[in-house]
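The instructor's notes for this session suggest beginning with a concrete chain rather than abstract definitions. Hand out the sequence below and ask the class to guess, before any prediction is shown, which regions might be ordered.
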Amino acid sequence: MLLPLFSAVAVLAATAVPAAAGESGSPQSRGADGPVVRTEQGLVRGVPHGSYSTYDGIPYAAPPTGPLRWRPPAPVTPWRGVRDATVQAQRCVQMPAPGAAAVVGSEDCLYLNVTAPTLALAPTPKPTPAPPQSSRKRPVLVWLHGGAFLGGSGNDFSAERLAVRGDAVVVTVNYRLGVFGYFAHPGLGSAAPFGLADQQAALRWVKANAEHFGGDPQNVTLFGESAGALGICAHLTSPTAAGLFQRAVLQSGSCFMSFPRGALGPATPAYEPFAPQHDVETAGAEAARQLGCTAGDAGVVLACLRGTGTDRLATPGMMQSFNRPAYGNALLPMAPDEALRAGRFHRVPLIQGTNHDEMRMFVGLSLGAFPIRTEEDYRARLTDAFGSTAPAVEAQYPAADHPTPALAWAAVLTDRSLACTTLAADRAIAARAPGLPLYGYEFGDPAAPTPAGLPGNPDFPYGAAHGFELPYLFSSIPTERPLTDAQRALSGQMVDYWTDFARTGTPNGPGDPPWPVLRPGSPRSGPVLSLAPGRGAIHPVDADSAHHCRFWDSLSR
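After discussion, reveal the predicted structure:
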C-alpha cells in the first residue's frame, strides 16, 4: 500500500543516506589529538580535516526520554573533562519503512553537528567586501533537514563545501519527529510542537556557543529544505523565535505550500502542513485510547503514555498521525500562512525558492502503485483533485503538450503546490514589508543526478525534482552518478550565493551573476533567478508566467 502523501518521502529520507560510520547513542573516541573547543556546557574534542574541523554529536538539550517525553527541551547537564565529539549521535526515531522489524533511531537524539573552517587554513576563493570592524567572525548557517517531519537527520549533511568555500560555520540539527515531536493531548495543555521547540533550543545553543567555533552569534542564517523550510516558515511567524536568527533561506517549502486531494494517489486527502491545536489534541486523545491509556486523571494518562515503549509509538499509523505542527499555542499562535498575510513575521532578509520539476519526485514514487499511462488516467486524476474545475486545469495543461500524461500530472502538481504558492508567499511578504531584502530562485538543472533510492523509469525523467538541489550544497547526498564539471561549477556558485547571503544579507558577491531583489510588479511576482549549469544558464526568469500562476490564483479565489 502506498504511504500517504509525504510518508514515502520520509522513508526515503531515513533510508537513502546510510548512517554515518560510528553513528550511535554512545560514540567512541577516534583519538585524543583533535581540536578542543570550550562550549557553555563543557569542552568538546572534534576531528581535524585539514581546512576544516567537525564536532559531532554535541547535545543541545537533555534527552527527551522517560518523564521528559513530550516536554519542552530541557537544559543539558554540564560535563567535566573533554567530551568526545568525533562521531555522530543517533538520529531521532524515524518513520519506519514498510516491513521494518526494528525501530530506526533513538528518542535520545537532541544533538547537533558543527563544521568550522580551520582558522589558519580556510581559503577565501574570491575577493569579498571587507566586513564591518566588529564582524570578523564568520557567519553561521543552521541547517534544518527535510523528511515530512517524519524522517531524516542532520547527520546526513556533510557541510564542508559551505564551511570551506564559503568561510562559514555550519550547524546541522536533529529534532524530534512524528509522534515524538508533534503529539498533543488535552492533558498537556496547549503545548508547543516539541520538534519546533527543539529547533529553537538549537538556535539558542548556537547563540550561546557560535563564537567558540569562530562564528558570529549575531549573524545566524537559518536554512532548510522541504519540512525544514516549513519549520523556518513557523519560526518566521513565531514570537518565541525573535532574535534567534538574522536571515533565512527556504528551499521548497513556503508558508503557503499545500497539496490538493489525490496528489499521490486516488482519494488521498488534501494536505496542509500545519494543523489547529484542537485537532492534534483530539488525535492525541484517540491515540491514548488505542494505547490503553485512558483510566485516571490527566496526570495518570500522561504517565501511562510516557511509559509506553518506543516500539509501540514508532509505528506507521502513530507516526503519520502526528507530522503536522499544531498552531494555537505560545510558539505558533496563528496558522503561519495567516500570520504571513497579517504581517506577523520577523523582518529578516529572505531567500525562497523551488525546483523546476518539484513534484516529479512525489509522482515518481507513486507510479508503481498508481500508474498514469493514458489521457484517461490523467483526466481521472484531475477530476479527483479538482472536481468541477478539472476541465479548466486540463485546458491549461493538455496531455499533448507533455511527453507523457504522467509528466503532465507532475507539472500540474508542481505549479499548484509549490511553484505558485511560493511566489504567492513572496507577494504577501513584500506587501507587508516593502523594502525587505527578498530573493527568489528556481533550481532548473534538467539533468540533475537522481538521489539514491528513487525508482528508475525511462519514460519518467525526474529533471529538477524535489530535493535534487541538495547534492549541489552538501557532498554527502548519494546519487546515481557524480556531478559533471558544469554541475560542479553550478554547485560552487550556489555555495557562493548561499554563504554571501549569510554573510551580508544579499547573495550578490563580487563576480557573481547578479541576483535581482524580488519587487512584485512586472512581472507580477518579480523575476527569480534560474540556477542551472552552463554558460549563461544563471539568469532571471518570469516563473510566475512559466508556471501558470495567474490561473492558479483565479481558482483559489
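Then share the key points. Residues 256 and 424 are 7 Å apart (CA to CA). The first helix runs from residue 7 to 15.
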